[in-house]
Write a structure and sequence with these properties.
Length: 358
């Protein structure tokens, strides 16, 4: 499949695992944040990284199983699967009559946001480190597609499995993606003239090695593509001529006039034999087993996290990638939160601020 942003290699941000004291896997990663202002109260010393602890905040909602090697709390699976933290609006910095721009007054500082932009995702970020990228050099992130498509995203599902996918399960993918997109969008609504109240997700294709792996044959939830495999990995894909992306070399959106179905903007690749995920401007790759295990959950950390990468946000796992050791919890430091927190929301707003400024 042709990749977007062909002037530079595609970097893939991944949801990493920790091996101390036990591997960080999907089964123990689903956790929640009590509220936007709460902090974990624990007798364990956060500097005692890699050590097993069991502690909770005042509400008893968040339980810290241990601290990862770089100091972040790794939370226990919680039965409480709440919505993301409510957006906060901080102090207005824009002038009267201009699009409303603000700075945070709680949870995360403006200095931390500036550091993330300067060192991780802005034009001055060191892109020789694959953990960083320059969002300004790529016009193919989710925001770009949403503006070009008037608030909608078209998805191709790449079924990278030898198991059979039922229509009843496949029919849930659209709702899962729509829900997580709109959790992110809560932080954009009403901010800096962002024009979309809601994000619409359309499923336009299902790609499989063999049509017998799908237990339906009609196109009611998206056109079925059989046997079209990418050259690099042999993974099923929707046709190249249907891939709608911004060609950064020629500065135009790709020509999809030869597509016999509906063009797709990004793909969701469901991979059978992984316990982690990837995300970038091309979409998301997630663990099939984890997705099916949590298919009815309100929040799925892998989905929310990888969509964050597709918006242009980076990972925050090791010390060099954070402005401070006590950088507040966020879904982009996924073991620390299942939900989108104010840290995530304000970082997303900063991306919008800079993208709109050019």
């Amino acid at each position: 499949m042709q990749t977007a942003g062909t002037e530079t290699p595609i970097q893939q941000a991944d949801l990493k695992t920790y091996e101390s004291p036990t591997q960080w896997t999907p089964s123990n990663s689903q956790s929640s944040l009590a509220d936007s202002s709460s902090s974990i109260e624990t007798s364990a010393d956060p500097s005692d990284v890699g050590s097993q602890t069991t502690s909770s905040d005042a509400s008893g909602s968040d339980v810290v199983d241990y601290y990862a090697p770089d100091g972040q709390p790794v939370l226990r699976d919680s039965s409480s699967n709440r919505s993301s933290s409510p957006p906060t609006f901080g102090n207005i910095t824009s002038k009267s009559g201009e699009c409303v721009v603000r700075n945070p007054t709680e949870y995360i500082t403006n200095e931390e946001l500036d550091w993330v932009w300067e060192h991780r995702i802005g034009p001055n970020a060191d892109t020789s480190d694959e953990a960083n990228w320059n969002v300004m050099a790529n016009k193919n992130f989710i925001m770009d597609h949403l503006v070009a498509n008037n608030g909608s995203m078209n998805y191709c599902v790449r079924w990278d499995s030898t198991n059979t996918l039922s229509k009843s399960v496949a029919s849930k993918f659209q709702g899962i993606l729509t829900r997580h997109y709109n959790e992110w969008n809560k932080w954009l609504k009403g901010y800096n003239c962002w024009p979309f109240e809601d994000i619409k997700v359309n499923m336009v294709g299902f790609a499989t090695k063999d049509a017998s792996l799908l237990d339906w044959t009609d196109d009611s939830i998206g056109q079925i593509y059989e046997g079209d495999l990418d050259a690099s990995e042999g993974v099923p894909q929707c046709p190249d001529e249907c891939y709608r992306f911004y060609d950064s070399v020629n500065n135009v959106w790709s020509d999809t006039s030869a597509c016999k179905g509906e063009p797709f903007d990004v793909f969701l690749r469901m991979t059978q034999n992984i316990e982690y995920g990837f995300g970038f401007d091309w979409g998301q790759e997630v663990s099939l087993n984890n997705t099916l295990e949590h298919i009815n959950d309100k929040n799925m950390v892998y989905i929310g996290h990888e969509i964050g990468h597709s918006f242009g946000l980076p990972d925050f796992y090791v010390a060099k990638d954070k402005p401070s050791k006590d950088f507040p919890r966020c879904i982009m430091m996924a073991a620390s939160s299942i939900i989108i927190t104010p840290s995530d929301g304000w970082m997303l707003r900063r991306v919008l601020d800079h993208v709109r400024s050019v």
